[in-house]
Structures are given as C-alpha cells and as structure tokens.
Amino acid sequence: MSWKINSWMECIPKNMKSLLEKTILLRKRTSSTIPFGYELSENDSHYLEPVEKQLEALEAVEEMIVNEEISLRDGCYWLEDYTGRKLSPAGLKKIIDNKYGTRPERLGFTTA
C-alpha cells in the first residue's frame, strides 16, 4: 500500500506534502492510555503522533529481548533511562508478544 501513497503524493504540491505526510502518520486514539512511542497530537486530542526516539528505542529493545540478550525488566530500565518514559515489564511483554508471538511460539514449542 505504501507504493500507492508514494506515487499519489508525487502529484501534490510541496507545501501540502508535509501536512499530508503528518496526517498519514497519525494514529486514531482508541483508549485513555497513550501507547509507548506516541504522544497526543497538538491539533486534535483524538489522534496520536509517533515519537521517533521512543519508537526506535523500543524496536532496539524488542530485538534484544527476542534474542534473549536482556530481560524484560532490564529493557524497561533502559527504555526509561533513554527516553524518560516508563513502561512496565508486563506492558513490554504485551508489545513483544503481539508483534513477535509468545516466547514458546518463537522457540517452536507450540502444541497442536
């Protein structure tokens, strides 16, 4: 789908591109909790804007945890130290399980 957006955006004047790109990156708010890596949009409180620093840090920690290089708790401490935003080990586990599957699934121990 991204190729359609990119080819479509070539037809738009440059002064409108930044607004459109920002609108595409917005995510609709679905609960009272703001997910890690996002903040409330300044223009509309019903939308969330990505925070690149937090998302990049989260991705790095996810890979280390999936590869079993660090623990969930150590990952949370590192994220809090690096980004200034807290995340519980249970919250981090939920993010990782949703993205990569549970640990037994990742290791191939699923039962039929």
Summary keywords:
112 residues; mainly alpha; 2 domains; 6 helices; 3 strands; globular; disordered N terminus
SSE blueprint:
Blueprint: H1 2-9, H2 14-25, E1 27-28, E2 38-40, E3 47-50, H3 52-66, H4 72-83, H5 89-100, H6 103-107
Antiparallel strand pairs: 1-3, 2-3
Helix pairs in contact: 3-4, 4-5
Q: Hey, roughly how much beta strand do the residues contain? A: 5-15%
Largest sheet: 3 strands, antiparallel
Gyration radius over CA = 17 Å
The helix-strand sequence is HHEEEHHHH
Please state the overall shape, judged from the principal axes of the Cα atoms: globular
Q: How many H/I helices?
A: 6
User: Strands across the major sheet, in which order?
Assistant: 1-3-2
- Can you tell me the residue ranges where pLDDT is under 50 for at least 5 consecutive residues? 1-6
Number of individual domains: 2
- The number of distinct β-strands equals 3
Amount of helix: 55-70%
Given the helix and strand composition, which structural class is it?
mainly alpha
Mean of pLDDT: 82
Distance between the termini: 34 Å
Structural overview:
The chain has 112 residues and is mainly α. The chain has helices at residues 2-9, 14-25, 52-66, 72-83, 89-100, 103-107; strands at 27-28, 38-40, 47-50. Strands 1-3-2 form a three-stranded antiparallel β-sheet. α3 runs antiparallel to α4.
Briefly say what this structure is.
The chain is mainly α. It has 6 helices and 3 strands, in the order ααβββαααα.
